[in-house]
Hints:
This protein is mainly α. The chain has one domain (3-241). Helices cover 81% and strands 0% of the residues. The protein has helices at 3-18, 21-38, 44-47, 53-71, 76-81, 83-88, 94-114, 117-126, 131-157, 162-185, 189-197, 200-208, 214-241. Helix 2 packs antiparallel against helix 4 (53-71) and helix 7 packs across helix 13. The longest helix has 28 residues, at 214-241. The protein is globular, with a radius of gyration of 19 Å. The two termini are 28 Å apart. 38% of the residues are buried. The mean pLDDT is 85.
Amino acid sequence: MNRPALIIAKKELRxxxxxxxxxxxxxxxxxxxxxxxxxxxxxxxxxKQASLQSFFDTAYWTLFFFIPALTMRSIAEENNSGTIELLxxxxxxxxxxxxxxxSACFMLIFIALLCTLPYYFTVMYLGKxxxxxxxxGYLGLLLMSAAYISIGIFASxxxxxxxxxxxxxxxxxxxxxxxxxxxxxxxxxxxxxxVNYFSMKEHMDGIKRGIIDSRDxxxxxxxxxxxxxxxxxxxxxxxxxx
Length: 242
């Protein structure tokens, strides 16, 4: 990461903590994930297995809702206040702005997942746990988060309304999160395989089992790249129109 993007990332991350967004996210995420991992339904004690699959299943859905709320203000707020034009008059490119904001959101998600490591040590104390599978599960959540952050930043770049940005990111994420999988499961042959490939769950399931396939990495990397590129293009168009 170059210096301008790093400066923007640090500024954005500091703003998260100054505005209490970071604390709300961390407390809510740990509360939801902890409750469903340890106390409800298919929790660790119910399954009687030294596994964090219940946590990964919970985090899969929790992050899906939390990330649009995290990214909705990233550019929409600056579009609304007009500070994005001021920012782009400085020696910084649109890509550096996008990359800096993406990095800040990703670092906050990384911190949130880091705070769940006590879950791993607790389960490890209760029984023998497959650390490789756990590591892959965390990797899968990070890759999924990166994909949804890029989608959220793009949604935020095309509007000046934070609520609209949240709804756009959430609506787009719905397709990847379960609609593609739902449609793909009802199709056969090549059509079913193609639609299933776009399903986030299809790729997450393999990684959660400890299988890292190059196709999964390409899938997540492509979403991140396309999301950030489209956000940069949107930013450039807005700046040109101004």
